[in-house]
Hints:
binds ligand Z5A
Amino acid sequence: MGFFLTVEGCEGAGKTTAMESIRQWLIAKGIAFEQTREPGGTLLAEQIRELLLAKHQESVADTTELLLMFAARSQNFHEKIKPALAQDKVVLSDRFTDATYAYQGGGRGVDCSRIEILEQLVQGDCRPDLTLLMDLEPELGLARARGRGGELDRIEQEDIDFFKRVRAAYLARAEQFPERYRVVDASQSIESVRVRIETILAEYLESCL
Ligand code: Z5A
């Protein structure tokens, strides 16, 4: 009983924390799964991730960023996601193409029709079955992420308005695709968020039976 489950959200919204809750839940239920992340997920895709997040001496054109995201995705999709779904496994991915609509589309202003063309080229008709959107005010998310310490990467250095556009684009997609999106209020405590995620997963599983 395979399905494709993605976790999305702005910077610091708690995706990593949510991924761990989901992982533990799947293990407890004895459900076989493949875990991945984007950009990244395979050796080659992780190298592209490094290129994408590093700071460069020249500015990165929006189209370059978009194509690199999809280059990484193509590798992750063909090498990892598609084979796992074909084996009827659950695929659990920390971000997928919704992030491109949010960051490159909403954040950078890339026309969505360009993203749609690349989405079709790379994935064909494959889309996530269930998407958890960890939703949080960008100010709070950035404060949480920055509270972890460490250097900010190229995308994390964007200003607050960029992250507000990213959040708005995510919420617009959640409205556009209510059948697969579940919005999680990520301002709640870690424990409340975990309970909410487990409820969503249990309901989804029930609906598949
Ligand atoms: N990107 C893109 O532009 N286009 C694309 O198509 C794709 C990606 C796929 C890397 O993504 C960058 O790539 C990302 C988008 C872009 N750039 N940005 N910005 P990433 O997913 O690898 O990295 P990230 O977005 O920077 O994730 P993150 O910073 O690791 O955030 P997170 O995973 O959502 O947060 P967290 O680590 O779970 O939580 C942050 C802190 O808050 C941590 O200390 C937690 O303990 C704490 N936390 C978590 N939940 C709570 C609650 N409920 N209460 C209180 N504190 C909490």
